[in-house]
Specification:
binds ligand BES, binds manganese (II) ion, nine-stranded mixed β-sheet, alpha+beta, 2 domains
Length: about 450
């Protein structure tokens, strides 16, 4: 093991240079203008799998390609399925980046670029660790399958179909994903729960065209007035969501879990500094950590309609639109929540306004079995690489594939995040700390060793 770790330490600069190449490809999945870069990036990942000593195949989909590779050593050894996503969020707003999003740059021990932490930098640690095993040992200690997709950030639908049609190819004992965060600086975490999500869009259509608000004002309903009034009723001043039935199926944290939460180090000052706000806000009766990871939410992600340019403009706009997401906790049902949200908004729609409700992706929340042998092995690997045991903690974000792995492939996922929530995911100046990238790579190398000694409990 020591030889492999020194091999990795000696080659840190090369690994970083290669990651920079990966980050230079603008693989924005949500915007069709970047389709050529998506192809280019899939090809880059394929080559990276080959360089690591794995087989590699690109599977085209009606959307963006999936890249798959493997090295199967011995069927009696455990098989791990590593997942990552090579697509990234759009880089906008461009003017808020200190250096351009697709021109990676190191400053203050951090590598800045879109995708640096979400998820190119994190997934690349696994490829470098596999490569080190292959080059130093000539072989891996277990069977490895690697699945890297390109539609995670746009709520793509093609991966589930791929899972359903490639069950044999993907058969494994456990999945590993590095696409979450450490608990804090130097406090590694194993993420033991994720929130689910539903996403929707409300479109209101009023008059057939923008109207003079002096001539017509007061005589017909204004869609922007209607939309803002509707949206304004979603969350009360106490942070409680007002949609009838919203909390019906919510599983609350147990007293033991709340006790564990309260023992985690948390500084409200540091938290406010991280987000750039002056005060916390949320549902009464719950701590910030609880609100952020174990309570459901309803957020308006954006509104548009009417005139928002310079100076006044006196119109009754013809249309208005809002994008809304809810984060879900265990037992909440995505369809039921969307139905309740739609009914709640529709009921408030005034006469003369056409109401349209569009539904996007959704997935349930997920919590993990904290007692599994896989998890214990991951804990040891992280302890070795980070010099600190990981805390077990739920995260507020969503990774729908985790549920698909459970439902379609029947396997659990180890969520081992090397990054930090303060790395500006989905935001300008996204980065990864070089230290996190390097110790993540070491943890990954140790992980294959630790996991190889767990006895697989195969059902098939
Ligand atoms: N890597 C994130 C999810 C994440 C980040 C979880 C940090 C926990 C901590 C992932 O790429 C992501 O952005 N997921 C989306 C899912 C959505 C598009 C269905 C999310 O959570 O908004
Ligand atoms: Mn991600
Ligand atoms: Mn993301």
């Amino acid at each position: 093991m020591q030889k492999i770790l020194s091999f990795l330490v000696d080659r840190q600069q090369t690994a970083l240079d290669e990651l920079c190449q990966f980050l230079r490809i603008a693989s924005v999945s949500a915007d069709s203008a970047y389709a050529p870069q998506m192809q280019e990036c899939a090809a880059w990942v394929k080559q990276a799998l080959l360089d690591a000593g794995l087989s590699a195949t690109i599977y085209p989909t009606p959307g963006h390609p999936i890249v798959y590779g493997e090295r199967l050593r011995d069927p009696s050894l455990p098989t791990v399925l590593i997942y990552g996503h090579y697509d990234v969020q759009p880089p906008d707003p461009l003017n808020l980046w200190t250096t351009p999003a697709f021109e990676p740059q190191v400053r203050d021990g951090k590598l800045f670029a879109r995708g640096a932490t979400d998820d190119k930098g994190q997934l690349f640690t696994h490829l470098k660790a596999i490569q080190a095993w292959m080059q130093v040992n000539g072989e891996l200690p277990l069977n490895v399958k690697v699945l890297i997709e390109g539609e995670e950030e746009c709520g793509g639908v093609h991966l589930d179909h791929f899972l359903e049609t490639h069950r044999d190819l993907l058969r494994a004992d456990v999945a590993v994903i590095s696409d979450t965060s450490q608990y804090g600086d130097g406090i590694p975490a194993i993420t033991c729960g994720l929130r689910g999500i539903v996403a929707a869009e409300v479109r209101l259509k009023g008059p057939g065209k923008d109207l003079h608000s002096g001539i017509y004002g007061g005589s017909i309903a204004n869609p922007v007035n209607a939309l803002t009034r509707m949206c304004g009723t979603l969350v009360g001043p106490d942070g409680r969501i007002s949609i009838p039935g919203f909390y019906d199926d919510v599983v609350e944290l147990t007293p033991v879990e709340r006790e564990e939460y309260s023992r985690l180090p948390f500084s409200e000052r540091d938290f406010l500094q991280e987000v750039g706000s002056s005060a916390v806000f949320g549902e009464a009766g719950w701590s910030t950590l609880e609100r952020r990871t174990a309570r459901p939410t309803c957020d308006i992600n954006g509104v548009s309609g009417g005139y928002a340019g310079e100076g006044p403009k006196t119109i009754i706009p013809s249309r208005a639109l809002a994008k809304i997401t809810c984060r879900l906790v265990p037992r909440m049902n995505p369809t039921k929540i969307l139905d309740a949200l739609e009914a709640f908004l529709k009921e408030q729609c005034p006469p003369g306004i056409e109401f349209e409700f569009r539904r996007f992706h959704g997935c349930e929340a997920f919590v993990f079995d904290p007692t599994s042998d896989w998890l214990a092995a991951a804990r040891r690997a992280i302890q070795t690489a980070f010099g600190q045991p990981p805390v077990l903690f739920r995260e507020g974000g969503s990774i729908p594939v985790v549920l698909s792995f459970k439902q379609i492939l029947g396997i659990d996922t180890l969520l081992l995040g090397w990054g930090r929530n303060s790395d500006n995911l989905h935001s300008p100046d996204e980065h990864i700390h070089l230290q996190d990238f390097h110790r993540g790579t070491l943890a990954s190398a140790c992980l294959w060793d630790e996991l190889s000694r767990v006895a697989p409990t195969r059902t098939t």
